[in-house]
Write a structure and sequence with these properties.
Blueprint (H helix, E strand, L loop, with lengths): L6 E9 L15 E8 L5 E8 L6 E8 L3 E6 L15 E19 L6 E6 L1 E2 L1
Antiparallel strand pairs: 1-6, 1-8, 2-5, 2-6, 3-4, 3-6, 6-7
Amino acid sequence: MANPIGKTCWAIAEGYIPPDNTDRPPEFVSHETACLLNTSDQDAQVEIVLYFSDRDPVGPYRVTVPARRTQHVRFNDLQDPEPVPRGTDYASVITADVPIVVQHTRLDSRQAETALLSTIAYAG
């Protein structure tokens, strides 16, 4: 693609992974996801840093999104440098070395009526 779409810096001001019953199948466990779209002709090297109200930031978590591909990154699965805490408010800043598009999605399955929300992140 001659002109990749997106930005190199994104923010998701709202993040929260509810404490959840992990006895459910993975697709029904409450989670936060950053949907990353890379329309460029080169792989995107992405870094995610988490910010908290009561402690220092954590990160970067590193992800590679291949050229002309999308990748859904579940915050629940991020482990290095440390697992994302459950039951804790946080925000995230996502940076990439090529323009990408970031969409934030949450599945809250704590009740029988599962709730899903999704929104485009803020592009800085």
